[in-house]
Design a protein that fits this description.
The structure is a homodimer of 341-residue chains. The model of chain A has no long low-confidence stretch (mean pLDDT 95). Chain A is mainly alpha-helical and 341 residues long. Chain A has 2 domains: 27-35 and 187-314, Cytochrome c-like domain (Cytochrome Bc1 Complex, Chain D, domain 2), CATH 1.10.760.10; 51-183, Cytochrome Bc1 Complex, Chain D, domain 2 (Orthogonal Bundle). The first copy, chain A, has a two-stranded antiparallel ribbon with strand order 1-2. The relative contact order of chain A is 0.16. Helix content of chain A is 36%, strand content 2%. Chain A has 13 helices and 2 strands; from the N terminus they run ααααααααααβαβαα. Chain A binds chain B through residues 62, 64, 69-71, 76, 79-83, 86-88, 92, 95-96, 98, 271-272, 274, 283-284, 320, 322-328, 330-331, 333, 337-338, 340, and chain B through 62, 64, 69-71, 76, 79-83, 86-88, 92, 95-96, 98, 271-272, 274, 283-284, 320, 322-328, 330-331, 333, 337-338, 340.
């Protein structure tokens, strides 16, 4: 009898107080839409993240000798001291040129379906091959990059350790090392703690915002592990924004359906990745949310709704990993010189 | 009698074997010319290096919002991932302009008699006020910098902690914080171990180079704790180099005697601070040593002497401190935007 009493008391306690380990409807719905960041970097099967490769990749990420002028490194436009971006509408490159699209954040980028706004590179390894050669970015050539790296004995050794074999120092391996390093750039946030079951990780205000974010339909596109980055969508599916000039993915596929289609940007660390949109034309997050509501959902979001959504978005500001600066090896008399022309 | 025998044996042992703690003539001569780096940063009495100030100073050192375009930070030209320089003849700045003198290294710079090639700033704190405002460098104004920093609540708090009082956020305090951080940028090397008494820290080759360096007279100018940086000297005191156009300190003092006079550069980390001279015209250290022998000493140094001296110079490549990237706070809607014009 005593046993039965205890059991019944336990049952009543459970039913009345909704104990901490019971999952709220909000969390259930959130789990249908989003996933927490992986606890560890996810490497490609053919590009494992060995210690030697990550060390090389970090050095190359900060290596200005990958640019023709020796002025720019990956970190110039994807700054790891901040939002993984340069917080300019368009990035400044070789000879003070500018690119035509806003630099996306490198934080958590490896989890996206593809890279660049138009998805033209399949992963971070493929992406890293691009800006080094782009005229308006680093403006180098494969030849000059390989000559520079190959003239520096420490790099030759680092490539050999990272890519054992006879052909260690290649342009592809350079990009593979950078890509592997980028896969370590994950920024877990309070929203991840929430998704993992710690419902107290979000404030009531943030939870309200999360609910609106899902109810209004934002999460139809900004979904998955990166809260974006997992699919393509037309910018202006309901109302085309007046400022939109860029044809987006149409430039890659030449399919009429892909006009103004872009990879959906990740909203993680959005607080730090201003200015917003493919052209970096909007600096204020509230304004960006308002525009999204109108262009994508045909909704005139109220100021309160926008404030709630922004509160939720800021809960995805992640903890940046501690990154110590690499110690870049010295050039040698054989190293090709910088060229500002 | 036994005691006397022991004493005599000890004396003989001492006289014959020259034990480890006896100081060689080379070390004695070196100590007459040079000093090891201080074990700790040396701060100014009126600008103590508190933890709060060093944290702020590091953030500002990496802060691109100090430049008009938001493209450049102190670290752009004085790169802490390398030799504390940008390894270009002249640094690239706002609108792809270039400066007129080679960027000197920030490593150990606080120990110099003054800052800039012409000594026009008395210390690193004063120096840090310059490039932010220079047209061909960061091209900002005091007003825009203070408006930007003042619009970011985290910076306002950081300044208040670093500079308690009513007027925390000032342009001078910005530079003082950067200067205090720069005072921590010391790079102890094997040469310091040698100067402190570990004579095995240098190889025989390096010791030969050190002896030549002192015997030939290089150490007359490249002396003291920074092996340079402690005095001014005319470039071309014996033979004027054909490439020399810069009037140097004359521009500051307008004294005829100061024509072509420069602060003697520090030779610490010289392996990493190429290209050499005020105009960055020489990329090869051996070539630079050869030119110095001829212009400053009227000596045609032999290839062997040059090789020995370079071996010694490379023993001053120091251990760089581990530097973790700061986490820069986000701008706000009130923060003035970057301006590339």
């Amino acid at each position: 009898m005593n046993v039965l009493k205890v059991l019944m008391a336990g049952f009543l306690f459970f039913a009345v107080t909704s104990p901490a380990w019971a999952v709220s409807d909000l969390l259930k719905e959130a789990r249908d839409n989003f996933k927490p960041l992986p606890d560890k970097p996810v490497f490609k099967a053919d590009n494992p993240g060995t210690a030697a490769k990550l060390k090389l990749g970090k050095a190359l990420y900060f290596e200005t000798r990958l640019s023709k002028s020796n002025v720019f490194s990956c970190n110039s436009c994807h700054n790891l001291a901040g939002g993984g971006v340069d917080n300019n509408a368009f990035s400044t490159g070789h000879k003070w040129n500018v690119g035509g699209r806003n630099a996306p954040t490198v934080w958590n980028a490896s989890l996206h379906i593809a890279q660049f706004w138009d998805g033209r590179a399949k992963d971070v390894e493929a992406q890293a091959q691009g800006p080094v050669l782009a005229d308006v970015e680093m403006a180098a050539t494969k030849d000059i990059v390989l000559k520079r790296l190959g003239s520096i004995p420490e790099y030759v050794v680092m490539f050999r350790k990272a890519f054992p074999g006879i052909d260690s120092l290649t342009y592809k391996n350079m990009a593979d090392a950078i890509g592997a390093f980028e896969r370590t750039l994950l920024t877990p946030s309070r929203f991840d703690s929430f998704l993992k079951g710690d419902e107290s990780a979000l404030t009531a205000h943030e939870k309200t915002g999360l609910k609106i974010f899902m109810d209004k339909g934002c999460a139809a596109c900004h979904e998955g592990v990166a809260v974006g980055g997992g699919m393509y969508a037309k910018f202006g599916v309901v109302n085309k924004p007046a400022f939109l000039k860029d044809e987006g993915r149409f430039g890659v596929t030449k399919q009429e359906d892909d006009k103004n289609v872009f990879k959906v940007p990740s909203l993680r660390n959005i607080e730090f990745t201003y200015p917003y949109f493919n052209d970096g034309s909007v600096w204020n997050l509230s304004e960006a949310v308002k525009i999204m509501g109108w262009t994508q959902l045909g909704e005139k979001l109220s100021a309160k709704e926008i404030g709630d959504i922004v509160a939720f978005l800021n809960s995805m500001t992640g903890k940046l990993p501690e990154i110590t600066l690499p110690k870049l090896p010295a050039s040698t008399p054989l190293t090709p010189k910088p060229d500002r022309s």
